[in-house]
Fold this sequence. Notes:
By secondary structure, the chain is mainly α. Helices cover 72% and strands 1% of the residues. The chain is globular, with a radius of gyration of 27 Å.
Amino acid sequence: MSRISILTRRLPRQAEGERQRISVRTFAEPLAYLLPFFIGLAIFTLFPIINVFLLSFKEDYRMLSGEFSRYGLGNYAFILKDPYFINGLKNTAIYVFTVVPVSTVLALFFAYMLNKKLRLNPLYQTAFFLPMVTSVIAVGLAWKWIFNYDYGVLNFFLSLFNIDPINWLNNPHYGLWAIIIYGIWSYLPFTIILLLSGLQNIDPLYATAARVDGASNFKIFFRITLPLLAPTVGLVLIVNIISASKVFNELFPLFNGKPGVAYNLYTVVYYIYEVFYVKWRLGQAGAAAVILFLIVLVFTMVQLYLQRNWKHY
C-alpha cells in the first residue's frame, strides 16, 4: 500500500479526534473562566430583580419575619393612588424630557467644536470632561452655592441682564428648574465623550467630497454628519433616558436630603427610597420599582424601533 493511501486513511481519523477534543474544550474551558462572572451576575443582578418582582406582589410584607398576608395587586393599587408617587412620576417625566434633549443638543454642539483642530483643544477637552471624575456630592454642594439667592453666581449673571434674583432653592416654583439646570450640566461630559467618539469615526472624505460639490457647512452637517452620527445619537438618548429616569443624587445636596422645601420635588427613585428605608413598606417600594422599570423598558423599546428609521445611508 502506498504512503499516500495510508495518509488519506489517517487524516479523517485524526480530524475526527481533533473535532471531539475541540468540542469538549470549547464548551468546558470558556465556561470555567466565565463561571465566576455568571455566579456574580446571578447573585447580585438576577436574584435581586426576581426578588423585587415577587416582593411587589406580597401584601403586608414584614422584612424581619418574612411574613405577608397574600399575593395580590394591593401594592400597585396603593401607589397608583398615592399623590406622592404621582407627583414623582410627573417630576421624573419633566426632568427626563427636558434634560435629555437639551443636554444632547448642547453636547452635540460642543463635540462638533471639539472635533475641529482648534487651539488649546486639549484644555477644552479637560474642562468638559473634568466633572466626570469629580465627587457627585462635592459638585452638588458647589451648585448649591451657585443657586444661592444672595450671592450666587447664577443670580449675579442674571443681574447683568437686569433680571431680578431668583430664589432657586427656597421657592417651590423654581426647585425643579434648579434640578434640571444641574442635570443638564451633569450629563454633558459623558454625552460629549460618546458624540465626539462618533464624530471621530466618520470618514472626513464625505465632507471633503461635499465641499467639492459646493455644499455649505450647514448642509454637510445636517445631510452627512448627522445621519452618519444617528446610531451614536440613538445610543446617547437610550443611555441618558435610563440614567435620567433614576434621578436621585441631585436632590440630596441641593435640598439637604429632602424632596424640595415644600416636599413637591418627589421623583420615582426618591419615592422608592423613602418608602423602603424610611417607612419600611417594602412591597410598595417594590411595586414602584417595577413600574419604573416597565416605563423605562417601554421607552427604550420605542427608541430602538424609531432608531431603525434614522439611517439614511
